[in-house]
Amino acid sequence: MLHLRVICPPERSDDVLRLLDEQPGVAHLVRLPGAALRPAGDMVEADVAREAADETIAALCGLGVDRDGGITLEQIDTALSDSADRAEEQAPGDAADAVVWEELLARTGEESRLNGTFLAFLSIACLLAAVGVITGSTVTIVGAMVVGPEFGPLAAIAVGLVRRRWDLVRRAALALAVGFPLAMVLTAVGTVAGNAVGLFDTSALTENHELDFVYDVGPWSLIVAVLAGAAGMLSMTSAKSAALVGVFISVTTVPAAGYASVALILGHWGRFGPSLGQLAVNLLGIVAAATVVLLLHRRHHARNGPGRPLSKG
Which CATH number fits domain 2-98: 1.20.1260.10, 3.30.70.120, 3.40.50.1980, 1.10.600.10? Predict the structure, then answer.
């Protein structure tokens, strides 16, 4: 279940309470008159079944609470209550299949921002991939996949496309457009420095045939990217974040970027181009699959439950 907190003007409290009391999937309804200071007003709290949260938030936004007050959601790990059990039974659908769009927008919006942390993680991941390529260490390549933060912006692009949030699409695209080139430049500089001090030579790539999959772009590259993109978006929409680790170590985005940087510096042009192609195929495949998953979610929701307006926030 999710914990819902609503701050609203006192004159709207009755409407909010009535709405929540009539909404299926709501339990533990509490009203605290005058408890809110900024913005001033009453505070209303309730626990909401995940599968009912999206419709509940839409109804509250219809009352203008998001403009004059505030709405927050928190995940509840454990709820011991017969009332909560009844609320989950009354809520339509299944919690694992429910998409809380506002939660998804907030999560992907935060992970898609171009900031120092994103650039640092992506650069470190590319450098790790370069080390793995040069040393022939598959474990290091896998580590680079896990460290890479690129799935956040890719998921944000998919959410933005489905919800027609072009600001989110632009922000996520900017993060990728700046992040990958910068990380690859830093990796290229590191490769030049390592080669200059004699850590490795131009034969580093030709001797590691077990890593050819990194730049060997083909149908399987797209298939893996599509499956990983679908699994990643399902993980985000169902709050099963543990599955994201499997997504991270399935796609060849960061390894391809790191391989391309090393190949460029060492003069392996026959591997530089295919590495960039591998990167592009994986990025596009992930976005396409994630978008399709969200479209199917929305179609299923529209067919089996009442619709809700697109978010403007």
Answer: 3.30.70.120
